[in-house]
Structure formats: structure tokens, C-alpha cells
Amino acid sequence: MLCEELAALALEDEVEYMDTSETPWYWYYKAKCGVWHRVEDDPKSFMSSDDLERYYHRNPQGVIIMNTAGGEIQINFAASTQIHLKTGKEKRIKRSFQTDTGFRCKCDEISQSPPAHWNDFDSETPYQIFSLRKDSSEYQIVERFVRGDGLLHDPIISIKRIQNLDLWELFCRKKVQLMRIRGQSDIKEQMLFHGTDAKNVHSICTFNFNCRLSEKKRKAHVYGKGTYFAKHASHAIKYSNTRQGTKVLLLARVIVGKYKRGHSDDCTPNDDQDENIHDSCVDDALYPKIFVIFDSNQIYPEYVLEYRSN
């Protein structure tokens, strides 16, 4: 899955079987948002990488119980998991020789730090956009997804990463809020495509998609009056305007949650419900290819793709 592959980018150098260097090793846990954090960053635990590393060297395949501020935690090195023994909640853990001081997007407590794989982050600008090198792991992961899952066969000119901390934090907060409301430990998230005109990219990167604007402008609200996303790039390109043979697609991280088949007059995914039990509308509840989102905080525009239309 693309979300998981991108989350792992910050930890590309995985566990090595022999540690012959003096480089310090660190331990990370995977937060609800899918981003990896140093164990020292968990406010409910006083675990440290030094402690885990010491236990790991004693028995790399072992299972230990640690008493932390948040209760007893079972660490299973072989399974790469940590389990809170009282609540049963499980998190994935990883070992890496990253030498930074840790990174946070803090979906659990939402801090002011960017995701780990962002580079040259400038907190003074509304957003930044970086062209990915074609030989980078990130470019190749995204391209593979666009070709394989997105079914885009046209030549790709560039893939650019959008870095907007304000939109990222709103997205993380929304995800945690919905999980809390639903009483779930996770909520369905997908990478989806949106075709648009190049002139709209700056506004989307700055303010996100305007679902209310979509409601006013879209002439054919087949599945609801929101912002439309497609599972396949090959469908979204129908809405990309051509300029000198070049088209633009946005690849967004979208919280689709629980969905239902939408109707043309739907202004929310729960218009015909007494309770707010749905998070989005789709074209087909069993095999959805089109998703309609009514709350922009459920969207994080992550990549801009430029491609040449055949």
C-alpha cells in the first residue's frame, strides 16, 4: 500500500543482522497517522532507545515486559510489535541507525514538527513544493503506484511533493477525531487522484480543496455535492485541462472512512441518516472507484504530477 511505503521512507535502512559500527541505533513506533516516531517521543511512556537496544542485544528474538508511565508494555522483538497489556492496543516498532534527534507529526498530540521525509522544511512559508529526483526511492514508489494502481500510461514529466504543515496537522487531527468518535484504533485512508487545471494548484497547495466551492461549481453532482477523487488516474485525467500537451494531476491522502453510495443532492455523507455514521460517498459501495469528500480536513494534497497527454 502506498501510504505504508511512504511512511517507511524515513527508515529505509532497516535492521541489519550484524552491527559492527559505533553508530547509535534508535527505536521507533508507528503512530496512528502512519508516521514513525522515536520511542522517546511517546508522552505516555518513559521507554528509551538505549533500554530497548540493551534488551535487544541480550535476545534479538525475545519478548520482554516493561513497566512504563502508561502501564505494562510487552515488546516482541521477533514480531516487531509493542502491546499495551491492559488495553491490548498494538503498535509496530522498528530499529534504525538514524542519527537525528527524532521526528514528529504527533497525530496523538499534534506538535509543530513536519513528517520525517520532508526536506528543507521552512516554517515561515505557507507551503513548499519539491520536485522529486527520478532516481529517489520516493519518486519510484509514487511512480509505481501511479502506473500500477492508478493505471496512468501517459509519460510522466515530474512528480512534486507538497509540504504544508498547517494542512498536515488539520488532516492528522481529523483522523484522530474520527477514530475517537468511532471508537476505532484506525480508519480507512486511501491515496486518490484529482484532475484539475494547473492554475488551481497554488490555491490547493495553500488552502486545500474547497469542498463548498465544489458544491457551487460542479454541474453534475452525481454522487454528492463535494470534492471528487478517483481511485484510478486514468479516470481523473478527464478533468485535467491540457496546456500545450501537459496535464496536471493531484495525488492526495484521503480519509474515506466508512462510505455509502452517494446521491446527487447529498450535501454530507449522512443526509439520509439520523446519525453521522458515514465519512464519504462513493459511486459503488462494494467496488468504489469514485469518492466524494465533504470536509477538506479529510484531505491532504500530497503530490502534484505533471504528465504529457497522448
UniProtKB/TrEMBL annotation:
What are the WWE domain coordinates in residue numbering?
13-95
Q: Which Pfam families match?
A: PARP, WWE
Alphabetical UniProt keywords: Glycosyltransferase, NAD, Transferase
EC assignment? 2.4.2.-
Is Membrane found in the keyword set? no
Name one cellular component (GO) term.
Answer: nucleus
CDD domains in the cross-refs: TCCD_inducible_PARP_like (cd01439)
Q: Where is the PARP catalytic domain?
A: 114-310
| Gene Ontology MF, one | NAD+ poly-ADP-ribosyltransferase activity
Asked if the Swiss-Prot or TrEMBL record annotates the protein with the keyword Glycosyltransferase, the reply is: yes
Lineage, top-rank taxon, reads: Eukaryota
Which PANTHER family does the record cross-reference, listed alphabetically?
POLY [ADP-RIBOSE] POLYMERASE, PROTEIN MONO-ADP-RIBOSYLTRANSFERASE PARP11
Into which family does the record put it?
Belongs to the ARTD/PARP family.
Name of the protein this chain belongs to: Poly [ADP-ribose] polymerase
What taxonomic ancestry is recorded? Answer: Eukaryota, Metazoa, Chordata, Craniata, Vertebrata
Gene behind this protein: LOC109098158
